[in-house]
Every structure is written in C-alpha cells, then in structure tokens.
Specification:
By secondary structure, the protein is α+β, with helices and mostly antiparallel strands. It has helices spanning 5-12, 28-39, 43-64, 71-88, 94-100, 105-126, 136-149, 174-184, 187-205, 212-232, 241-247, 252-256, 259-274, 277-286, 288-295, 320-331, 336-347, 351-354, 372-385, 422-441, 450-453; strands spanning 17-21, 24-27, 152-154, 163-167, 170-173, 298-307, 359-364, 398-404, 407-417, 447-449.
Length: 454
C-alpha cells in the first residue's frame, strides 16, 4: 500500500511528532523545549518536579527492595477507586473520570503501582503488619522523611547539561521532566503552544529573506510592547514587568524562547510588509461600530453585589426586590467613590471584585465580560452628562440597583477615558488584522495533536 505524504506524517504523530499542521510539523523536542522555558521555574513546574521526584524515588526504592506489584493488585486498587468515583457521581467509571481530567490510563496505572509500592515500604519502615491500617498522612510523612535523608540537589535552570535534579542514585533528566510536564499541563495549552510553533514556521516560510538579527529585533520590540501594556494596566499599579514575570517563574529570557512571542514578532513583520496605512483606515471605516464599541470611549466601573434570584432557596438568600431594598438603604448618605469602596469592602458578596475595591475594570460600550445592564446604565449616564465640548464628568456617580445574573448591584463610575486618537485606534485595527492574518496563515483548527489521534 502506497501512503500519501500526509498519511506518513499522521503515522508519525505520537511517535516523534507532537502535532501536524499541514506542511508544518511540531516535534516533541520542540514542544518540550517550549514547555520547559514556560513552566520550568513556575509554581506548576515546581509541583510537577516534586511529584516526578516522588515517583522516581519510589521506583528506585521499590526495585532495590525487590517489590513486584501484580496486575491483580493494580486491578483491585483500580476497582476501589472506581467505586469511589461512581458513589460520588463524578463519572460512570474510572476511564471516564480520567478522560475528564485529561489523564491517560497508562500514566494513572503507573501512579497506582507506585502508590502500592509506597504503602508497602511505609508499612515496613513503620513496623506495621499487612493488615494494620496506615493513613495517607503517614505515607506522605514517611516519603518526606525519605527525601530529607537522601542527597538531593536541584540543578540550575535551564539545565543545559540535561540534568534537572538528583536524589541519591536517581537522576531526573530534562527529557523526563518535559514528558512529565506534558502529562500534567492542560491540553488546551499544549495545543496553543503547538499552534504557536507551527505558526512561527509558517510565517518564516513567508519571510524567506528575514535575517536572524531582524527577527531578534522584532522579538525585543514585542517584549517592549508587552511591558508597556502592563505599565498602562491599573491592575498592576506600577509593578515592574520583570517582577511580574518573576512571580510567575518567568523571565525576559524565557519569553524570548516562547513560541507565542516569536509568532507575534513575525506577525508584526509580515503585517507591516502587507498592510498599508490606507488599508488600516479603510478597515476601520468599514467596521467602525465594532472597533469603537471595543476600543473607544471607556469608563472605570466599580460594583457592589448582593446575591439574589427571582425566588429564594438554599443557594439564593434573597429575592431581587429584597436585594434592591437593601441596596437602596446603602445609598442613603453615600457620597462618591471613596465612600462606595468602603461599602464594597463591608457588604459586597462578590469576592473577586471585593478584593479590588469593587473594580470591574475599564469598560467600553462593547466590553463583553461586563453585563449589558451595567454597560447600558454607565453610558446612558455619560451621554446624558456630555457637554457641548463632548466632555462628560461622571466620576463618583452611583447608579442602580441593577439586575444581573446572580444578583442585584450598585455601580459607581470612576475615571472616564475619551475615545483614542487615530494613532492609537490604528494600533487596535492593526492588532485585529494580525489576528486575521494568523488565522489565514495557519488556522487553529488545522493543528492535529497526538493526544487527539490516539
């Protein structure tokens, strides 16, 4: 049977290829390198390395102790866990539960086998009989003591010599750590990374004359743009970009190796070559309502929410009318934003916005993540307050009660931001055209991942 070139590539998927995207392939080595730069020093990466060390040490100890776990033992433990899943109503069986949590049965069986090894070794060390009960806390404490007694070292990132960690005779290699990460990182992110790698290849194919130095300059420019966006974001209140990256286990050097940064840099280069200022203006005029709604005039909005529903029940403590009455009482004597923020801290039942003094963010007429009732009330007041000069002074204005899904709320308007200049709006239009260009060059749906094919 003669296979087509596409069939051959798909046959390699899951062997050496992590993804196939038309004529552009992504190897596991490429995906793993991106994963390690993105997660090697993150909180998730540290937890993944800790769990891998647990597994490797248990493998080593179990082998040295001559412990062999039979298929019958694994099947029995599997059955126990499956009954727990079924009784909890989490899934019809353990296979379904694992699929829901993006865990392969092979990986789970390894964990099951080593959990049995851990229990056997902990019993022996604690002098317990096979029948004596042993808790998960006892087993965890035993394994922690084992780690403390071993000569364990973590090698410096990015592990150029190929070794991530050592524990006695156990060596965690860079490749083993990357494979372990692959089993833990959500598949959506794996797909996003693979798409960025393939997209970068597709873009470079369209830029055959691009010099490495020009690409490096474009990557540095992309990092500068990202830092500028963070500096403008009131949520970060002037925190330096590099400090924010460090808090996530990242660095500027890690971003230089991130395929999403590389892809964006290449998109900038290609779009600058293919899109003229006249085309930007034409696109804006043709889709003006859309761009103005998303990027035009904006206002900071703060909210105080009380949970409510049409009818009271165990989950909803009050009706909308009862919540409205409580909110109207709060309105008495309420004066300005500072007073509103004080009441948010005391009464608001939305923990996410309460931690930010009620701030929903900078809201435009088309901000999708903010309820329509909030957007409508805010901009009706802005339009009503607008003077002949186009300026509307609404800071400190309190509106409501308004009904949204889950409750009733008051909102307070903060700073108003006028529609941007054409220079700034042109940047937004160019960003939208880059997104469209990326989809044209390599649609996300064109990427086939190994875990979808097997």
């Amino acid at each position: 049977i003669e296979l087509s070139e596409g069939d051959v590539e798909l046959a390699r998927l899951g062997v050496e290829l992590a993804a196939v995207a038309g004529e552009f392939n992504v190897t596991f080595a490429e995906l793993d390198d991106a994963l390690l730069w993105r997660h090697g020093r993150s909180k998730d990466g540290s937890e993944a390395l800790s769990s891998l060390l647990d597994l490797a040490v248990l493998e080593d100890l179990g082998r040295k102790a001559g412990i062999e776990v039979s298929d019958k033992q694994i099947a029995a433990r599997w059955g126990e866990l499956e009954r727990e899943v079924q009784e909890a109503g989490a899934a019809a069986d353990l296979y379904e539960y694992l699929a829901q949590n993006e865990i392969t049965p092979e990986v789970f069986r390894r964990h099951l086998r080593l959990s049995i090894v851990q229990e056997i070794l902990a019993r022996r060390d604690l002098g317990l009989s096979k029948e004596a009960p042993i808790s998960g806390e006892q087993q965890t404490a035993w394994l922690q003591r084992v780690h403390a007694e071993r000569d364990e070292t973590l090698e410096p990132f990015p592990w150029e010599d190929g070794v991530v960690a050592r524990s006695g005779s156990v060596v965690i290699t860079r490749d083993a750590f990357a494979e372990h990460l692959r089993n833990l990182i959500p598949r959506d992110e794996l797909s996003e990374l693979a798409h960025a790698i393939a997209l970068s290849k597709a873009l470079e194919a369209r830029l055959p004359d691009l010099a490495p130095s020009a690409l490096n300059q474009a990557i540095e420019a992309e990092l500068t743009r990202r830092a500028a966006r963070v500096a403008e974001d009131p949520r970060f209140q002037g925190v330096e970009y590099e400090r924010l990256l460090e808090a996530q286990g990242l660095s500027l050097e890690a971003l230089r190796h991130d395929p999403s940064v590389r892809a964006q840099a290449l998109l900038y280069i290609l779009s600058q070559r293919t899109t003229s200022p006249e085309q930007l203006r034409k696109t804006y005029e043709e889709e003006r309502e859309r761009f103005d709604a998303r990027y035009g005039e904006a206002v900071e909005v703060y909210a105080l929410l009380l949970h409510a529903a049409r009818f009271k029940n165990d989950i909803n403590p009050r009706t909308f009318s009862e919540a409205d009455a409580e909110l109207r009482k709060l309105l008495d004597g309420l004066d300005g934003l500072e007073d509103f923020q004080r009441l948010v801290a005391e009464f608001s039942e939305d923990p996410v916005t309460r931690e930010k003094k009620g701030l929903l963010g900078r809201v435009t007429r088309g901000t999708k993540v903010v309820p329509e009732a909030v957007r409508k009330a805010a901009f009706e007041r802005i339009d009503a307050a607008r003077g002949e000069d186009g300026v509307a002074d609404v800071s400190g204005t309190i509106l409501g009660p308004l009904h949204v899904q889950g409750g009733s709320l008051l909102i307070c308007l903060g700073r108003r931001f006028p529609a941007p200049t054409w220079e700034r709006m042109a940047e937004h239009v160019a960003g939208e055209l880059r997104r469209r260009l990326a989809e044209e060059v390599l649609p996300r749906g064109a990427v086939a991942m190994w875990f979808d094919a097997h």
